[in-house]
Amino acid sequence: MHGQAVEPRVIAGRYALVAELGRGGMGIVWRAQDRHIGRFVAIKELHLPDGIAHEERRVLEERALREARTAGKLNDPAVVTVYDAINENGTTYIVMELVEAATLSTLIGAHGPMPPNQVVSIALQALSALETAHAAGIVHRDVKPGNLMVRPDGKVKLTDFGIAQAVDDPRLTTSGSLIGSPAYMSPERIHGHEAGPASDLWALGATLCYAVEGWSPFERSSTASTLHAIMSETPRLTRATGVLGAVITGLLIADPNARLSGPQARAMLSSIGNQPTPPTGIPPQATQQYQQPAADPAKKKRNRVLALVGAAVIAVAAFTGGIFTHRAFTAPGGTSGSQALTYGEGAEVPVFGLYENTCGLGDVAPTKLLNSDTREECDKPHDFEVFDVIDTLPLQSSLPDAAYPGVDALKSLGVARCEMTLNSEWIKDGSKLRLTTLIPGEKAWTKDKSGNADRKIWCVAGNKDGSKLDGSISTKKDS
């Protein structure tokens, strides 16, 4: 009968489905009204792809309900709140906060890349959401531009917490295809390893690259070429410079053990807001919202130094324009046979007095003295070459009493950078070389009475098989 109103479908006797907001491979998202209290909500009606066995489907749906209920306990301004999880007539429904905002992918598609300072604000809010989830034992597994919603006031909401973990596991396949968003899958997930917090951070790095550069860094014309790009290419950053570029590069390190952690990335980005003249365009409330908790002065100084060390080491990679590849980080643990040693008084290598692009004789090993007596011309047979040097602090004079960041922090940052250079186009036959990363010991780091300190990290390499090198390993000398 014409003109007769159609009653909306009601879920659980409470939620009236008003309009479809969108749909994808995993289901339909509805705008709905909670008839008990009158508010509008978003409801995700879960539809798993065809081809999944009945028992596997049941397990996934149960896991989705369990994880959604867990996600409902998260308390962070950047997390979309989960209100309810329902299984009715064999279908799973997740009831969530309705966010009146466009996704990051929609905004970039319509308006192009965002200003870097706006991306910094988005990054800080997304990091806060991820840290809250990870602390609760929840891995998102589907961080991507389509799951980041940006309101007109600059506030960010990260959607699908707890839901993606249940339905977007790379180990679950249907007809040989990966379930999920391949362009934002970390290298370790493609290798079949279990996703963890580091996987979410890699996906966030790719998402931030998309936001500031205007293009998805690894998305290609086919799934196969996309996965190949993730495993073998590094994005060429043109708009993301400085700390933001360093953070994106650090989050996209392929080895999850060398990748920036959430607190490291947040500390680096927060340092921008601590400058005398903060960047424009970052909402004031967002800046206030992500201040570090109060801590004792010594700890705060140590954290600041660690953030600066991270920025200094990783920024170099950001500025090189994509010359590095991911080859060094395809397996946890770094380059086969590599080692990291401390140098300076009381350290593993008591004396180190060589410079970049110098060569030498003998072993680079504990108790060895590496100085002018061991030096050899690079065009003569030699055992090792110092092929790179890293300034850990950009302005050492501004931090005369900088606290020692610790051996683990310096090793992590130093090995990551040295391996990137070793496996880049700057080094000949890097796969045949054994890396030694030399980091300053605590006494070398600390300034003496004359104001001298050695805070550099040195990258040294020799042949893995122990044979002599018969020329420089650096292509920079040939250019």
Describe the structure.
This protein is α+β, with helices and mostly antiparallel strands. The protein folds into 3 domains: 10-97, Phosphorylase Kinase, domain 1; 102-326, Transferase(Phosphotransferase), domain 1, CATH 1.10.510; 329-477, no CATH class. 32% of the residues lie in helices and 19% in strands. It contains 13 helices and 19 strands. It has helices at 54-71, 104-111, 116-135, 163-167, 187-190, 197-213, 223-232, 242-251, 262-273, 284-289, 297-319, 407-422, 442-445; strands at residues 10-11, 15-24, 27-34, 40-46, 82-88, 91-97, 102-103, 148-150, 156-158, 173-174, 177-178, 339-343, 351-352, 358-360, 369-370, 375-376, 384-391, 433-440, 456-463. It has a 6-stranded antiparallel β-sheet with strand order 1-2-3-4-6-5, covered by helices on one side. A 6-stranded mixed β-sheet has the order 12-18-19-17-14-16. A hairpin with a 5-residue loop joins strand 3 (27-34) and strand 4 (40-46). The chain is elongated. The termini are far apart. Mean pLDDT is 79; it is low at 164-179, 274-295, 312-335 and 394-399.
In whole angstroms, the N-to-C terminal distance is 82 Å
- β-sheet strand percentage: 15-25%
Structural class per helix/strand content? Answer: alpha+beta
Which runs of at least 5 residues are low in confidence (pLDDT < 50)? Answer: 164-179, 274-295, 312-335, 394-399
Number of strands: 19
The name of the CATH topology of the largest domain is Transferase(Phosphotransferase), domain 1
- The structural domain count equals 3
Strand order of the largest sheet: 1-2-3-4-6-5
Architecture of the largest domain, according to CATH?
A: Orthogonal Bundle
Rg over alpha carbons? 26 Å
> How many DSSP helices?
13
How much is the average pLDDT? 79
What do we call the CATH homologous superfamily of the largest domain? Transferase(Phosphotransferase) domain 1
Apparent shape:
elongated
CATH class of the largest domain: Mainly Alpha
Biggest sheet statistics: 6 strands, antiparallel
Q: Indicate the percent of residues in helices.
A: 25-40%
Organism: Lentzea jiangxiensis
Keywords: ATP-binding, Kinase, Membrane, Nucleotide-binding, Serine/threonine-protein kinase, Transferase, Transmembrane, Transmembrane helix
Region (Disordered): 271-297
InterPro entries: Kinase-like_dom_sf, Prot_kinase_dom, Protein_kinase_ATP_BS, Ser/Thr_kinase_AS
